[in-house]
Design goal:
This protein has 414 residues and is an alpha/beta fold. The protein is 51% helix and 10% strand. β6, α17 and β7 form a beta-alpha-beta unit. α4 packs across α9, α12 crosses α15 and α14 packs across α15.
Length: 414
Amino acid sequence: MSDLKVNGIVAEYNPFHNGHLYQLQDGKKRSEADYTIVVMSGNFMQRGTPAIINKFRRTEMALKSGADLVLELPALYSVSSAEFFAMGGVSILDKLGVVSHLCFGSESGDIDTLSRLADILAEESEEFTNTLKQGLRQGLSYPSARTAALTKLYPELMNCRDVLALSNNILGIEYLKALKRRNSSITPITTRRTSSNYGDRLMGNHQSSALALRHAIYDECDILSLTSQMPDSAFEILEKTLNSTGAIRLNDFSRILHYKLLTEADKGFTEYLDVSADLSDRIINHLDKFTDFKDFCDLLKSKDMTYTRISRSLMHILLDIRAEDMDSARNNDYISYARVLGFRKDAEPLLSAIKKNASIPLVTKLADAEKILDEAAYQTLKKELRINSVYESTAALKSKQAMVNEYRSPLVIV
């Protein structure tokens, strides 16, 4: 283990805003960190949506706002449930061998309560599992069934129902579970959200959610109205990128999704991650009503399956993310390499410490990947590159510009 103090953050930065800046600063101060590493989702997000601008520009936002190193969270984890999103990010940070702290945002800001809930959920007792399944059979969504099972078996947690209902708390609990299951030495700390919640769609005065910013951009707001919501450097990058390529939207992927659904309908979709037999049947039965990606999600959603779950499942089909991919990841301890997207020039000591202490290869040049990765890891990286090509080709067709070639895309260095 390195003598450095290093804070880790798992994030999407879609786009980077003042709340993210506060978390970076708060985490660095409370951990007394020498450096901050961010594991950031690539071009596709947890809700089953594309990033509003690509990963290289979001990396630049993070580095100019205080991050020292940005690594890519592969799509297998970035477009996944809270549990696997967290496990993917935590596994990368843990295997670097230098991370001393993990800072995550939460609505509660109460690490003790979140840790207590994480301990119970990490145990997965047979009684809890059976009670959870009972709730699911009754038609409850997974979050509602989990809350009902917890409060039934642990009445003292009745006052925690609100904690379990909020997105960042849920994700924070998953980070804590992942640390516990890995028996990690990383110390967790949480930054309390001081303004808008994760799901708030309306703009506030200073710290709006990323969702609110995206909706404002998609609604073609006056771009200058976002200046109060973001650090100056992040706003400049966003403005320049939007003027060049425009905002990438879910419906930009409608035609390619429709084509894939049409060509594979005969065999069904249950081989894809998160696609149940019931959902596969509904996709096939409603395929003649497909108009676009978003409307199809609305058409397929039900009492026991949310819009987000549908969108994520359809994105798995589009990106060719299969259930066997996650099974393989579980069996091989999740992460087999760490890909660098960018770093600060003064972070060389951090990179040296990682190369000395990490239990996984650090990929800085794609051209070298085949030499430094084993065959399984290399094939995983190649699949990730194909997934990112789906994003970049769609963005290129939309903007009528040349497609970004990752092999020719230099690391972001500031």
